[in-house]
């Protein structure tokens, strides 16, 4: 046995002469295509082609790690008759996951290569077999997978069942074509690994919302529900080692990064640990990078998984920042509806004015820093930043990317790809006389050209492949997925990266597949309750002051916030009963109703006046087969009509008391009591003739005595009473 050990040492020392560089710490996984491993070249035999290091695989035998791979000869001139790998891998064994630290305690490190391959030119390839047990491993080499030429056993000093092993080339993560380093693996598959770090999910733009003044993660499109459900089903526990970080996505990512710093500090206090893992979707990845690359970074992130993060920006943001415009698609339509309501409520004259003057800095910070504008007249692609809107945030973030790459944080970059013609890659622009589009209006954006000036290519519908690529040294994991579906479709990969284990259960509810959304946005002073066609409710319980939450995949922002709204994902076809109740002293209100699908977006606005505690009923009709049609009506009673007149006067929209009193008198005159047939009961009915006369009289007062808004509300009230 002693003789065998000496022989093996000699073999290893011989192979070690090929060593050129050490292994990076933390260990960097860099699984390049195996044809690029070493300096091997293709050798074609009668039956097949061999390309150096190939056929890497692993499994567990009696719970111990088993690794196999093959070497092929390169067939070229050189040392001997052609080596198969000038830079063969090392077997690298540490007492913990070597990706987790810059100083992993090293058990063993040796080149895995048999010098016999230098001399026997008749053999094209060799099978390597490494089988671990409780004290070390057995190393077997076979010519052409059949004739055994080496069978050695190596004891490893202080070897433990909880150790980790990996194959690592001498050039891991150096940018060298020879680079290859495989994912570290535990020596045993039945030894409970160290407890994973707590994980924080950081959402992207529109991925957070207020619920009664408290931030919650994406209750609207439910982008992260499946990912969270998968993590919980596989052992994570909410608020113990699984956390979310909803935030004000309209603000600068730099500001949000400061809040993420505080969130991580709070999580570390809960788990009594030093580091966390981050799963960051879309713009959330820029928030995570802003923190890690900042001077405030506390060395407390173990690993970060980016999901569709636009590291170099996304061209769709050009439309928003330049002119307050949005591309088609359900997510973009929905974002636009939120922006429109916020602009209206906050007194902005346009979406452009709102985005620029609030300002919504996140939109600016998503602008690309690549060459993406093409001059319509010349076909020449402009060179950034000349004649581009600047993104100083991303310019700075990417200029010091070394702060991220050298931070010791383990990085995984996942990108989505839905095909070659789905994502804006280039925008063809011409001159514009508008105050907006100062850097160029997309060619035919208003419908004059088939592509509206938006030239599409590969990507996830939002982020391009180039934009979502972090750095040449960090390979992409590509998934066939749209931007919004990435957290769901990548959840198995995410769990494996976080824990090193395979998820036993994954979830895909399909809620965001071909999503349709019914959105009701309230312009105060009102609260709301919505009853679906099946009788289920969401909104405020006017009697008890509690909330209904009966409709699946629906969200009510709560009545304690000024931005009150209801979102119903994939609504039922039919009529929704919407009841609004006046708050405080009442006043003028509006209800914006939008039905949003991938193909279209329709919005109706209903205005009215309300008194304190007054309940007014609206009916909203929707159909998934005709999403462009939304039927909306306010149910008018004479009490509603009278109140609208009184409130219009209180607001000064009806100019004098005499006119107000005259209108009230006229309304009372068109109401008469009629005995119901087959009974002694009486009910109020409208005298349509008198109502028509009042409608005609109302027109005479328009302008001088009653403003446009009050006139329209009272006129629509009368028309409803006449027709119903």
Q: Could you explain the architecture of this structure?
A:
By secondary structure, this protein is an alpha+beta fold. Among the domains are: 2-186, no CATH class; 517-635, no CATH class; 639-723, no CATH class. 24% of the residues lie in helices and 28% in strands. The chain is built from 17 helices and 36 strands. The strands form nine sheets. The protein has a six-stranded parallel sheet, with helices on both faces. The protein has a six-stranded antiparallel sheet with strand order 27-26-25-30-33-34, with no helix packed on it. Strands 3-4-7-8-9 form a five-stranded antiparallel sheet. The chain is elongated and about 110 Å long. Mean pLDDT is 86; it is low at 1-20, 36-50, 75-80 and 673-677.
